[in-house]
């Protein structure tokens, strides 16, 4: 049985997203929205909001060609509770599976119009759908790590 690349990306992105929720499900709301006493850090809620906002952009907008309103700057100021975050993540996961589970492998080679500030694709070719998905995985994993470290800096026990 052959598994599509899109379904493989979906599996990894879901695993990362579920781990974000696992890291945050036991965090009191005050800690979820508490700033660290360190420069240029974000609250757990803001990190999780930015992670899902970026994932929606790179997967649903660039690869899935859907229209989604995004205010990147507002993601870093976001405040809220776990229930709202979980609801957003569930919507993201459903939409992500709709796009990736049936995505033809050939579609991964097609160019996408990413942001001009993104420079990780090779300079000798345009950004393609596979690049966008790889970036979504990379970016999600990076911010999951930030969430894990921020938990500890807030005095919460690590979750494995």
Automatic annotation (TrEMBL):
Q: Which SUPFAM superfamilies match?
A: DinB/YfiT-like putative metalloenzymes
Q: Where is the DinB-like domain?
A: 14-147
Instruction: Name the domain of life this protein comes from.
Output: Bacteria
Give the species this sequence originates from: Thermogemmatispora aurantia
Protein known as: DinB-like domain-containing protein
The family database entries (InterPro entries) matched by this protein are listed as: DinB-like, DinB/YfiT-like
């Amino acid at each position: 049985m052959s598994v599509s690349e899109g379904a493989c990306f979906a599996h990894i992105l879901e695993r990362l997203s579920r781990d974000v929720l696992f890291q945050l499900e036991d965090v009191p709301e005050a800690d979820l929205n508490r700033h660290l006493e360190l420069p240029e850090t974000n609250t757990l809620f803001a990190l999780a909001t930015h992670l899902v906002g970026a994932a929606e952009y790179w997967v649903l907008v660039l690869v899935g060609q859907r229209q989604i309103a995004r205010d990147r700057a507002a993601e870093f100021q976001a405040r809220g509770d776990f229930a709202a975050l979980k609801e957003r993540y569930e919507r993201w996961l459903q939409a992500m599976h709709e796009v990736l589970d049936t995505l033809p492998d050939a579609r991964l080679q097609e160019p996408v119009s990413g942001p001009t500030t993104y420079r990780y694709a090779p300079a000798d070719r345009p950004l393609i759908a596979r690049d966008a998905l790889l970036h979504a995985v990379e970016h999600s994993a990076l911010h999951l790590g930030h969430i894990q470290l921020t938990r500890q800096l807030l005095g919460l026990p690590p979750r494995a």
